[in-house]
Amino acid sequence: MTYWIRGLSPETFAPLFALDDAALAGINARRVIATADRGFPCRVSLDDAKAGEELILLHHTSHDVETPYRNAYAIYVRAGVTAAMYRDELPPVFEGRPLALRAFDAEGMLQTARLAGPGEADGAIRDLFADETISYIDAHNAAHGCFAARIERN
Questions:
Q1: Cβ distance 126 to 119 under 8 Å?
Q2: Is the pLDDT of residue 134 over 70?
Q3: pLDDT given for residue 1 in this prediction
Q4: Pairing verdict, β 71-78 and 30-33
Q5: Each residue's pLDDT tens digit, 77-107
Q6: Which of 67, 56, 62 has the alpha carbon at shortest distance from 27?
């Protein structure tokens, strides 16, 4: 069994970097400069921005389904990065972070969930996908609740 973890498409967010701060505020987004090498996780590259890098903090619908489980929250994105792609391995942004793994069927209905501590995500993902009714898993940072990445069956 294999799985894919992909970063969000950079094309979706590229126009935001041309907006001034007032225009960003008008869409409830903010320009942010990372103040540390950890704590500013980019959802495109699936890696933390480094201190001094510019990001956009915005509201993002990560689970855009017509069910009660539709979900949106704040995420960070960086300009000039490529969408990450990981097969059967975890992206750097998962390292050292406890994750909430939410497993959904093809209709977007939550079937089960699991908390995974640091170092436990790969095993938890494989366990969740052992159930053939699970179509995909949305990973969220357990503490802050923000969307981390979508995990799909291969």
A1: no
A2: yes
A3: 63
A4: unpaired
A5: 999 999 999 999 999 999 999 999 999 999 9
A6: 56
* Count of Cβ atoms closer than 10 Å to residue 134 Cβ: 19
* CA distances in angstroms from 92 to 25, 68, 76, 132, listed in the order given: 30, 31, 15, 27
* Tokens found for residue 22: 């007032």
Q: Which two tokens stand for residue 17?
A: 């970097």
Alpha helices in 14-119, H assignment, sequence order:
21-26
Entry pTM = 0.94
Nearest to 48, CA basis, from 85, 18, 81: 81
The alpha carbons of the chain give a radius of gyration, in whole angstroms, of 16
Report how far Cα 104 is from the mean position of its chain's Cα atoms: 15
Please state, in angstroms and rounded to a whole number, the distance separating the CA atoms of residues 25 and 59.
11
**Is there a contact between 134 and 1 (Cβ–Cβ < 8 Å)?**
no
Concatenated DSSP letters for 19-79? S-HHHHHHTT-EEEE-SSSSS-EETTTTEEPPTT-EEEEEEEEEE--SSTT-EEEEEEEES
Q: Give the three-state DSSP class for 97.
A: coil
Specify the DSSP class assigned to residue 117. -
From CA 91, how far away is CA 72, in angstroms rounded?
Answer: 21
